[in-house]
Amino acid sequence: MNNRRKVSLILLTLVLSFSLIFMGCGSTEKVSDNKDLKTVRLNEVVRSIFYAPQYVAINEGIFADEGIDIKLQTGWGGDKSMTALVSNTADIGLIGSETSVYVVKQGSNEKIINFAQLTQTDGSFLVSRNNIPNFKFSDLKGKEIVGGRRGGIPQMVMEYTLNKNGITPNKDVDIIQNIAFDATTGAFKGGTGDFIQLFEPNASKLEKENNGYVVASFGTEAGKLAYTVFMATESYLKDNPETVQKFTNAVYKGQIWCANHTAEEIANSIKSFFPEDDLDIIIKAVNRYKEQESWAPNPLVQKEAIERLQDVMIKGGELDTKIPFEQIVNNSFAEKTIKEIPLP
């Protein structure tokens, strides 16, 4: 075989390989009759079953029926997703609402506004290396937890929960915070830490592999919070009110869909976003989130939930005074959505 033909075959193989990769990572969105779609660049902070209503709204054709074509990006970190928003490489972000507070505190000229809430609890779980049938938070004393980055809401909720249960972070228990979010599971499997804070499906995957055991839910322990919210720059909301309204409508319909379908049905709908995970893992993770009511029933950003989140930030030492609700929240789109879209 001559060199030119070898090169051609190699290039063809690479093209086919990349095509298969992107086919596996994409959605299986149902085709809509609406051909005049408005593109929205959506940046999610991580890829997690925690965001199931969003994936349902994509794969069930709900966004498309509203006239929106979602171009989904995954930031793998609140700081990265926020950077995408402020640099105009994303139109809307699905991020922890604490990031909008940080932007205001930093004195940015462009405010980031929360306009539609997706989740109302923390979505992470405490996973132990060893099976502890009757786990108590006192079992953490003298141990190490692989946690999240300092200043992120998962880390602050963990510390809030520990303090609530009489455990002083980095005194009674060491928290490892210098590992990248997408590398923590591998580090834990490699022997780092006695416990780890994980979202789904990673928590259930460790259990299936007998590499870990879920012993507590931070969502259950910490209660209702304005946890993960759709947000955009103030100027984007002002310049694109019709698009934002349709986007919010789709979010609500995705929330309603999840509320009225079984874990198995939800898992089958979102499976394409988790091509490497077995269906039983996805079903188990969906069940966990449904049982602890992690998904908000509607997109309205609750004032009490924002206040509570800022309480967590203050107790975590990341905030000195609260930002007024009206500076970081615009509920007009959610209010209109709830008024005009009837429940089934």
Automatic annotation (TrEMBL):
Q: Which residues cross the membrane?
A: none
Record's InterPro entries? SsuA/THI5
| Compartments reported by the entry | Periplasm
Q: Which Pfam families match?
A: NMT1 (PF09084)
- Any GO CC annotation of this UniProt entry: periplasmic space
Annotated keywords: Signal
Start and end of every SsuA/THI5-like domain? 52-263
Gene3D superfamilies recorded: Periplasmic binding protein-like II
Q: Which PROSITE patterns match?
A: PROKAR_LIPOPROTEIN
Which protein family is it in?
A: Belongs to the bacterial solute-binding protein SsuA/TauA family.
Show the PANTHER family listed in the entry: ALIPHATIC SULFONATES-BINDING PROTEIN-RELATED (PTHR30024), TAURINE-BINDING PERIPLASMIC PROTEIN (PTHR30024:SF47)
Protein name, UniProt field? NitT/TauT family transport system substrate-binding protein
Write down the species: Desulfonispora thiosulfatigenes DSM 11270
